[in-house]
Write a structure and sequence with these properties.
Number of strands: 13
CATH class: Alpha Beta
CATH architecture: 3-Layer(aba) Sandwich
Distance between the termini: 13 Å
Number of helices: 13
Largest sheet: 7 strands, parallel
CATH superfamily: NAD(P)-binding Rossmann-like Domain
Structural class: alpha/beta
Helix content: 40-55%
Number of domains: 1
Oligomer: single chain
Order of helices and strands: HEHEHHEHEHHEHEEHEEEHEEHEHH
CATH topology: Rossmann fold
Strand order of the largest sheet: 3-2-1-4-5-6-11
Radius of gyration: 19 Å
Length: 345
């Protein structure tokens, strides 16, 4: 299945480099792994499969072929386990830290678990990377750190009060990253993801993201549920853009001992009502019949009303430029989701 990794893969020139990807069996992690192996890189991955999927790794293996797959070393373990972090970092490399317990609602239901995985796990990984001689770390932060700041577009220097335990964990990671960079001479970049979507994003469970939830309902001929009045808006970002941002941040000319947070998005806002209609049309064009209109439910606790990113800093310092806007990304995602009636999910 085409992922359109041409832009980030073009960054992987010259001799192979060692990479470390945590959360490697997850949605973003497995897409990073696929791109890196397609670019003939050497990758060590960490996952405990609590939210990641072995099927994602099987799909990557099939996509890249056996010869490239031999360049991948898998460590099954928990981020919170120092031994697992040391094992994945043992040979050094550029670190792409994607492992986390996502979802605002889940963090409200299980705040200590969110803190333990997202903060304690991140600290364990940072320490192991430092001790293994890894000088460059890129980690997944979140647009949720902007909290109740009303300003749009969101700029990295202006934060509000965080509105969920998940947001607090991601902001705490940013604070620790700044301290680690300063005291240990590491170069660390935090990527504030804005509503990433794409192939391998799971629709399963009560905390699934909105696009796979909508697609699963539409595939069944059922109405998707919009929380709120439909005017809630997000800056949706296709996963190939996120892969590009990770690679650029890992290889950019940034000062040693620095920490910088970057927005990773497209710089466009789309309402949930508009999103649903785009997906409804995409499914209808492939199924031949129009799925139902959306139904509406209550707003979810901890959600913000509107989100839109200023991506100027990532453009200036990393050379980041989105290659996929929401319309193209939704076509690719819908094609993946519906093919063979979801055989790979």
């Amino acid at each position: 299945m085409r992922r359109d990794f041409a832009a980030p893969r073009a960054l992987l020139t010259g001799s192979p480099v060692r990479w470390i990807v945590t959360g490697v069996a997850g949605f973003i992690g497995s897409n990073l792994l696929e791109c890196l192996l397609e670019g003939d890189q050497i990758v060590a991955g960490l996952d405990d499969f609590s939210t990641g999927s072995r099927a994602n790794l099987d799909a990557v293996r099939q996509a890249v072929g056996e010869a490239r797959w031999t360049r991948f070393r898998m460590v099954e373990g928990d981020l919170r386990d120092p031994a697992a972090c040391r094992a994945v970092c043992r040979d050094g490399g550029l670190v792409l830290h994607q492992g986390a317990l996502g979802s605002v609602p889940r963090s409200i239901a299980e705040p200590f678990l969110a803190h333990d995985v997202n903060v304690s796990g991140t600290l364990q990984l940072f320490l192991a990377a430092r001790d293994a001689g890894c000088r460059r770390i890129v980690y997944a932060s979140s647009s949720s750190v902007y909290g109740d700041d009303p300003g749009l577009p969101k700029r990295e220097s202006v934060l509000g009060r965080q509105l969920s335990p998940y947001a607090v964990t991601k902001y705490t990671d940013e604070l620790y990253a700044g301290v680690y960079a300063k005291h240990y001479g590491l170069t660390i970049s935090g990527l504030r993801y804005f509503n990433v979507f794409g192939p391998r994003q799971s629709p399963d469970g009560p905390y699934a993201a909105v696009i796979p939830r909508f697609l699963e309902a539409l595939d069944r001929g059922e109405a998707g549920v919009i929380h709120g009045d439909g005017e809630t808006s997000r800056d949706f970002c296709y996963v190939a853009n996120v892969v590009q941002a990770n690679l650029r941040a890992a290889m950019a000319s940034l000062p040693e001992g620095s920490h910088t947070a970057f927005n990773v998005a497209c710089g466009r806002a789309t309402t949930l009502r508009r999103l649903y209609e785009l997906l409804r049309s995409a499914v209808a064009s492939r199924r031949g019949t129009a799925p139902p209109d959306a139904s509406y439910g209550d707003f979810r606790a901890g959600d913000i009303a509107r989100s839109l990113a200023d991506i100027g800093l990532a453009a200036a310092l990393l050379g980041y430029a989105p290659t996929h806007q929401i319309e193209e990304g939704l076509v690719l995602t819908t094609d993946w989701f519906l093919r063979d009636e979801g055989a790979e999910r």
